[in-house]
Amino acid sequence: MGIYFIAAGTAKTDNREKSLDKAFKAHELKKFNIAKIDDFFTPSGNIYIWGATERSFKQLLEVEKNDYVIDVKDTEVKQVFRFCFYIDTGNDSSLQEYIGWDAELSKEEKRSYRYVYFLKAPLQTKNTNKSYYQNAFGFKTKHWLPGQRHINDELIDKALKNTNSSSIEHFLGIANQDFSSVILNPEKSTKLIKEETVSFIPNWLRDLVEQIEKLKKDQDHYERDHESLVEKLFTLLDFKEIKYRRGRIDILILEKSKPLITIEVKSDWSLSEKNLEYIRQAYNYSFETGTKHIIVTNGDRYFLFDKSRGCSYNENLVGSVELTKPTKEGLDLLNYLRTLHED
Hints:
- By secondary structure, the protein is of the alpha+beta class.
- It folds into two domains: about 5-195, ph1033 like domains (ph1033 like fold, Roll); about 205-340, tt1808, chain A (Alpha-Beta Complex).
- It is built from twelve helices and twelve strands.
- It has helices spanning about 15-20, 35-40, 55-60, 95-100, 130-135, 155-160, 170, 205-215, 225-235, 275-290, 315, 330-340, and strands spanning about 5, 50, 70-75, 75-90, 115-125, 150, 240-245, 250-255, 260-265, 295, 300-305, 315-320.
- The strands form two sheets. It has a six-stranded mixed beta sheet. Strands 7-8-9-10-11-12 form a six-stranded mixed beta sheet, with helices on both faces.
- It starts with a strand and ends with a helix.
- The relative contact order is 0.10.
């Protein structure tokens, strides 16, 4: 998971207000024939847009889908987006003109934003001071963000250590947590944060976790209630084709009408990767549907298998996550699941 900083807006223009503070809908951009829009956004979804000049393009090339994009105005971080994709508009400036970037400037002053990229899911951050990130990365100069800048893995690891952050989300101030990051002396901070101790739940998961906790207290519930939890999660992960009860299969996830993930749902709250009977059952169903991805879950714990990874269940096990007690590895698995329908 990468991080991309953008210094959005200047005193001379209102560019950020036109496409970062304001969202577009898919139908508004239809005339520009942007092929990937439907792959990342629903008709009612909010689309945020920013552009890169030729000078910034080298930085933009490093960004991958679902990377975090940090929107900086002057010395303040305004919000955190997720990166979707970019397009090369070539010499066609019609999209830039439609958005209105640099409209306030004279013809001589206007810049060409040839590379236009699309963002989604803005989040407010608790860490709004630009200098917080400067200190975390160990940059000596306050002019470390001349326009746009991709942050590599080495710098991210350094920032996590310097801020005692257990995850990128924690570092960026977008995780649901009861404690704040404090910059330590980079020379003295050597403590590694164990992934197993992550104790916060992302904001987007909180309602679902509350439903899980409530269901655990309900002694008179059915397996169908667990299936509802699973449906809720995959809806949050932006999957749109979620099918119930296909023959003996509890839930089948499709992508463009093709089977993608076979899901076996159990009402056993003690479910683990050692429940081989459940796993074998799910595998048998996956051969009927033709999916390589398999999930065994109780609505709280999820075990993801990929049949292409080897010849045994252990080799096939991609990872697991417990929504009510997520670790960094577990949250990474959710992000991985989100990408399956975007490939």
